[in-house]
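Example record for the data management plan.
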Amino acid sequence: MQLSTKHLLGIKDLTPQDISTILSTATEFKGVLQRQIKKVPSLRDITIVNLFYENSTRTRISFELAEKRLSADTINFTASGSSAAKGETLLDTVNNILSMKVDMVVMRHSASGAPHFLAKHIPAAIVNAGDGINEHPTQALLDAFSIKESLGTLEGKKVVLIGDIMHSRVALSNIYLLNKMGAEVMVAGPPTLIPKYIAEALNVKVEYNLKKALQWCDVANVLRIQLERQNQVLFSSLREYNLAYGVSKKLLDSLNKEIVVMHPGPINRGVELDSDVADGTHSIILQQVENGVAVRMAVLYLLSGAKPTAN
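Corresponding structural encoding:
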């Protein structure tokens, strides 16, 4: 099995067949993770550098674990304690790393387009682990895998993304993926956090009333309020936000249906999601975390061009 692209820069660049291939490969690797010995030699001769210019405990650990489960050699690079903090350019840093004969680069950067820049200048395969407010493709893939695992299919399912759509690379990657795979997509939240062009540009429904959005959907993917990316006040207070757009157990109990609740993490408990929902029966948040390792194993394996050794 092969992908149509050498890199994973964004969901925008993948075909529906690519997405299906990644999800089916992830199913096989999830089986590996259930075994007593959770390691396969698939990437034994592959060297991967994790190049993180932006803090991310969850995504970095998930990629590191995926790499170790595949038996890859890994190098971890964080910008805060590196030459990058001393003024070295991105291309200089990567060329120095590539001189160590690295095969793949997993990269997170605060600048949108940074992985695309690298892909044009270096021969290694690039995996985008989040770039600015552009995309976070492996998060969308693990979200899709988790929905499919819970509901059997993506096609025809109604998924609402709730919260800070304006600043969310998770939202953009999810929208691209769900549209490609035949799901119906809605975004919900305060008008100040939803781009005005989004309905026409990205083929989504827009809803400003949370209860109506939840009544419509099969799956609610609740997004974190990204205060660090907001350079102006876009709602009155976190308390006010919670009252209008926080997903509570009382609200879910008032619906005449069961829905699946997701969150890419980290959760602002008591803001976008109450604890009794995050930890409740509707939630598949812990499954998302587990599935993230299997999905990232699938992506690394498929981009490496390695011969099948998973079984």
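Summary line stored alongside the record: Confidence is low (pLDDT under 50) at residues 228-233.
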